[in-house]
Write a structure and sequence with these properties.
Layout lengths: L1 H44 L5 H12 L8 H13 L3 H7 L2 H7 L2 E12 L2 E11 L4 E5 L25
Antiparallel strand pairs: 1-2, 2-3
Helix pairs in contact: 1-3
């Protein structure tokens, strides 16, 4: 009976983790899509910054139970779409969360921001290995593979970074 309880608890935790990661992935995708829609409207229709406060109020009025669409957050969505409009990342990430969970990896994010010594760095793809409890990052490069490129990354190990 004890092993059955342990197995059931593990299955529950796995499902909870998978649900949280799926929800986070969908939210990130939605924020990027909304930002992209707004960027395109700004280009095509010549919309300016005055649209953002109105849009924020309209969303609040139409969907009062939904949070997260303040003027500031909508601005972040636009910035997110402008900075990360690379189709390479979209294609690479499109199907990762479900498959990587089966392999023990949790998808953390794309273009994950790090600030080290007052410098900004962006990791193309960031994963967390659930069993090993460590981060794995992937840098995507455009063009032909060059072996010397794999040695240009400098990795800093930070012990006990999860504490």
């Amino acid at each position: 009976m004890r092993t059955l309880l342990i197995d059931i608890k593990q299955r529950i935790r796995k499902a909870q983790t998978k649900a949280i990661l799926s929800a986070n992935s969908e939210l990130i995708s939605m924020y990027w899509d909304i930002g992209k829609m707004l960027v395109e409207k700004q280009k095509v229709a010549g919309w300016g910054a005055a649209v953002i406060p109105r849009l924020s109020k309209d969303i609040h009025n139409e969907l009062p139970q939904i949070k997260g669409f303040s003027e500031r957050n909508i601005g972040y969505m636009i910035r997110f779409a402008r900075e990360y409009e690379t189709s390479i990342l979209q294609q690479a990430v499109a199907k990762l969360p479900d498959k990587t969970m089966l392999l023990g990896f949790a998808f953390v994010g794309r273009q994950y921001h790090l600030e080290i010594s007052d410098k900004d760095f962006y990791i193309d793809l960031l994963f967390f290995h659930l069993r090993l409890r460590c981060f794995i990052f992937i840098e995507l490069k455009k063009g032909e593979f060059k072996p010397e490129s794999s040695f240009t990354l400098r990795i800093a190990f930070i012990p006990n970074c999860h504490e």
